[in-house]
Write a structure and sequence with these properties.
Elements: H1 22-30, H2 33-50, H3 54-72, H4 74-84
């Protein structure tokens, strides 16, 4: 029997590290070509609309992406720590 996990194409970095665990696997799965492209696109948009350098726009966008990634999977981190105990 197939579940919904089988329908998702594995395009994230979790393909490179298959047995890393629930939390780290989910974080690595979120880093995929579409996310990188989105960070580049938003960083370019920030640099154009706010008149800053492109590097500054990329740094701001990358920092925001990493913080949001951590906040998104924070409950999963607590769950994975509770399962280990």
């Amino acid at each position: 029997m197939a579940d919904f996990g089988d329908l998702r194409a594995p395009i994230g970095l979790d393909v490179l590290a298959p047995g890393v665990g629930l939390y780290l696997g989910s974080v690595l799965n979120s880093i995929n070509p579409f996310a990188v492209w989105g960070v580049w696109l938003v960083g370019t948009g920030i640099s154009v609309t706010h008149g800053v350098s492109r590097a500054t726009g990329m740094v701001i966008t990358t920092f925001a992406y990493v913080v949001c990634l951590f906040l998104q999977f924070l409950p999963l981190l607590f769950l994975s720590m509770a399962i280990k105990q």
